Amino acid sequence: MIRVINATKAYNGNKVLDNVSSDFEEGKTNLVIGRSGSGKTVLLKSIVGLLKIDSGEIWYDDTRFDILDFKAKKSIRQSIGMLFQGSALFDSMTVEENVMFKLNMFTSMSKSEKRKRVDFCLERVNIRDANNMLPSELSGGMRKRVAIARAIVLNPRYLFCDEPNSGLDPKTAILIDNLIKDITDEFKMTTIVNTHDMNSVMEIGEKVIFIARGVKYWEGTSNEILKSDCKPLNDFIFASKLAKQLKS
Fold it and tell me: What are the tens digits of pLDDT across the range 125-138?
């Protein structure tokens, strides 16, 4: 489990996180939702240590992460998988080399062991016969799946996904959502997904928190979200539905 307690972060006197607290549960897909600029990406980057919070606490199980030095944080970071918004694959590397990148950095596995692990992860995300292809030769959905394979190659305990459906068509977005949910269940990871996609919320949101202007306004399950009397949340849901209708 990951626990955030009263996390606060400001830039030039403007709070982008304002005393945010939440528990992100093991073996579940925990979704952080909100409009662009709401603070959800700052929260995710703070949890993984890419940003330092001004005050508050961040815990990984029974270890307080935010006060650790660089070396101590590194051991936890090796248990973290990241899926970035734009997939962030290395353009000059093949699919196999992209997925193998972390194995080269953090393990002493033999070349054959690395290839076996890469093949397992690619198979798990339904990518076949693409080891020698470059990212430019892949569709957007395939790039996301390769990025997921890279994120899970070290068998992480924690998985972070920043807008995983960004730029994808609705059908492919559903496939990516289901893949994230299946992998979370299979490997019992603590998964945190940043999204503004209400389809994702309703499909895979076992735990959902809503942030607006850096403040956590609501927390609950996808079954409870449509029954909420939280006005900022309801405004967000209405705007999301309206945007979807306009696009279609």
Answer: 989 999 999 999 99
* Number of Cβ within a 10 Å radius of residue 3: 18
d(CA 167, CA 150): 20
Q: Tell me the pLDDT tens digit for each residue of 143-157.
A: 999 999 999 999 999
Residue 203 lies in domain: 1-79+196-248
Write down the pTM of the prediction. 0.88
Q: Provide the number of structural domains found in the chain.
A: 1
Smallest CA-to-CA distance from 204 within 4, 33, 22, 88 is with 33
Mean pLDDT of 103-132: 92
Unique residue bearing structure tokens 């270890």:
63
117 belongs to a structural domain: no
Residue 88 lies in a domain: no
Q: Is residue 92 part of a domain?
A: no
Whether 228 is in a domain gets the answer: yes
Task: Scan for tokens 């961040």, then name that residue.
Answer: 58
Two tokens, residue 96 = 């196999």
DSSP letter string, 198-227: HHHHHHH-SEEEEEETTEEEEEE-HHHHTT
